[in-house]
Amino acid sequence: MALVTKKSGVSRRERQAIFRGLLFVSPWLVGLLWFYVYPFFASLYYSFHNTTPFATGAFTGLENYRLLLSDPLFWKSLLNTFYYTGVAVVLGNLFALALALLLSQNLRGMTFYRTIFYLPSIVPFVAVSVVWIWILHPQYGIVNYALEWLGLPTLGWFSDPLWAMPGLIIVSLWGTGNMMIIYLAGLLDIPKELHEAATIDGATAWQRTLRITIPLLTPIILFNVVIGLIGGLQYFVQPYIITGGGPADATLVYALYLYQNAFSYFRMGYASAMAWVLFVIIMIVTLLVFRSSGRWVFYRH
Amino acid sequence: MTKKTDNHSLIHRLGSPLSRRNFLKLSGAAGAAVALGTLPRGLAQEPVTLTYWHGWTGQWEEMVNFVVDMFHQKQDRIRVEPVVVAWDQFLAKLSAAIAAGNPPDIATLFGSTAIPTLARQGAILALEDIEGVDLAAAQAWFNPSVYELGQFEDKTYGLSYWAGDNCLLYNKAHFEEVGLDPEKGPATLAELDAYAEQLTVKDGDKITRMGFQPTDLWLWGTVFGGSFYNPETKTVTANDPNIVRALEWMQSYPEKYGAREIAAFQTGLSSERAQNLDPFISGKYSMQMNGPWKLGDLKNFGSDVRFGVVPPPVPEAGMPTANWTWGDIQIIPNGVKDPAAAAEFVLFTGGVNDPEGYVERVTWGDRPINVPVSQQVIENPAFQEIVTAFPGFDVFVDALLNADRVGSPPVMAAAAFYSDRMTAMLEKVLLLQEEPQAALDALTTEVQRQLETMGS
Amino acid sequence: MALSDYRQSTTSPQAVGGQRKRTRRTVTTVVRHVVLVLLSLLFLTPFVWMVSTSLKTNEQVVEWPPRWIPNPLQPSNYSGVFETVPLLTYAKNTLIVTLFSVIGAVVSNALVAYGFARIQWRGREVLFIITLGTLMLPFQVTMIPLFIMFTKMGWVNTFFPLIVPSFLGNAFYIFLLRQVYLGISENYSEAARIEGASDLQILWYVIVPLARPALLSIALFQYLASWNDFLGPLLYLNDESKFTLALGLANMQSALGLSDFGQIMAAATMILIPVIGVFMFTQRYFLEGIAASGLKG
Question: What residue segments make up the domains of chain B, in order of their start?
Fold first, then answer.
């Protein structure tokens, strides 16, 4: 499309293009401004005030942020969230990758297995939570039953501060199917010739996996890790339904404490400050991961 | 499981719902009968319709509908439409609705904890400020301690349906089994501890029956003589030495029986909602603190359980008796179109000057629910009938009305926070992860801090 | 190579190694199968257990050791659910929200992605970067102001907060569709343009047919998102008659969680069936949609 540009300003053609473009994009523009830009700044504004559901309240400057830093529950919930996110993302990705590797060989019944592994990740969180409460029940759950049968000590799971979070992590591992699918797609994208060439050169399956498959998958690993981190830091539904943050604050994740502040204690200004801190943390974490990716991600050209 | 239990509401003390359909059929029939019996009058004006928010579900929602139906039967100027709003969002949604200018006309708060904040923000109306409200009648009607539940800074913001309290239920068959006198429940904590030890049964390491287990620090702190908040000085007093002693006593149980074993035993089935799986009815606990509503469950689902009721045992013989109470309080938001009509409903729920009607409501389903708000109700013959029909109910009533000390949830802005933190702290202490003094000191500091940032 | 193509054999004849290699391969295959079977059983267990519990009475639930097949069965839990909660109302509400959200998502994003992919205009890339940026915004940041705003607008206790946003675009779907649109050769649109077609006509007659699988994927994603959505209904729906299935189930759990476990499992089972059912019939679109999003990420 040849554009006739003047030295300054926009050509008529360009203007027309901008008009057409904006026209099509307009629903999103409205949505962006209404549901993202406005709340984005509004919550920043609220965080500088003593906002309650009734009123924006008095201006307090950075007071909410200072209070946050000296609030032990802020740190505790942050720690809990990092704990969950770190472990869940790492284990989740390892597990998903392993499953994908298993499935990438053409064995019979592949679609069947794939369905089974993917299903848990699309069912409603609420239903999942409710079921797992019982599966991990200290007295009547089948997991403890299995442990007992194996001669291992039974665990307190959601009634034990030490095991509550691991319990939640197990629940999230069960839902790792969607990451697996992405890995699977990536695996199948790797040209067979590479593997065949390596095999002819005498590489074992293990070596091939390490030297060819994994490096070629690194962009996808990056994608899954970033998505996983962003999601993990916002983790909310399962703790809300299963443990309510307990026992003894063991599963009080950041999003849950935020929710309590906003909707139980009326402290919407404080909660807004928490939200902004979370946003900053997510940006920093994402940035760090992307920075480091230069060293370990290998892009095919 | 460690779901936080909200001390201030009945919602966590429910049995399983009765069949909704059956109830609706019954009330429909009853309503039709009443309508047929009433002569139609020319309506002088359109009835006022009020929206009424509450958090009750299951059979308790039907109870509310019953109360509303009775209100409709009594007069036809005002119609009330109940709406169930889930409790854990209730306050936020109520505040938002008030702020947006379209609040419900009446709302029931589980417990009085939100009243200070709402009052300060001008979000709810004081009954004194509403024209045409016979507050004097209400004051005369209510027992002072119950009336106080709806008060803040000398104004009355709401009235309670009833007053809760706790007593000790004990299983007579278990008593006989271990050689205890089934007619003598424990009167002191020493006896309680000793009986508990005899009654507890273990299968190897697993506990299969607990004699007793204290879980409610609000109650026991008060029984030991402590007070959780000082409204004059606006200070949080969770580390009151009496409360520390109470917590130390509570901690002696996991120390003696094993924290892990108790936690495993307690999880999941220790909720009072579980009717015939209720831990007391199913014999898992030989002794348990509970409220009057449990008597109904015992009759309906545990008729083969022989039980006795005694007031909360005191730390030492001769000490003043105490109990813990709370209310479910009807408030009127600011900005409603007809405050007087709303107030009429509020007074109705408390049964002001209407003992028979009140008795019918407070024993909806023909069982005790809670302690009535008024001495006049207690003396009413219809009520006395219920008391006789449910042995033990008189103990509950007496334990509240004649207690030397009655504690109730602190009325201050950080009350919800206080309650949540108390639960978390209890979990830690009862898992033997923290010492009572340190835990209560920490609790005091954090709640005080929260209170100050919220402006008490 | 599409996901659906991978059924091709991966074993190429090996001249070297012969018998030994074949045995080793067979062993590996067997091991793989065994592992897969075990893992599948593990993954299926919660589902099986859920159905099993839904057929138990309360006493049977707490039996120890736990039993997989209760005896006798208690199918009345299922009918019991309908008496305990207005499940059909919940279902109707969920359907309404889901249906409109899906329509909104497909229509709006089909349009928006066209603007991002098939028209060259200044500022397009900047806007796209901002769009991507919204993916990093945690929902907590927008949650409180949206709640306050919707309350002031009187939209609380209606379905509007749940439906309207899907008519106004979604960053993830825009991203996905843009990828797909970009992959469609310009020749097609050029040809149409020469014949005098407007943008809208090009979109409808050229792009949409070619992007149909992707559009279907988006419909399915949105269907899932709406059906499973919990936080939205939690914040915006006040009274029970408006609840969706997810919220209704959570409410059941907190009101009855410890008194009627069989019923709750029955309700959970019933809620899952539409999700699993739809998935079974439309697997391809789901998986290809996800794969497409992951590969270019």
Answer: 10-23+45-164+326-407, 167-322+413-454
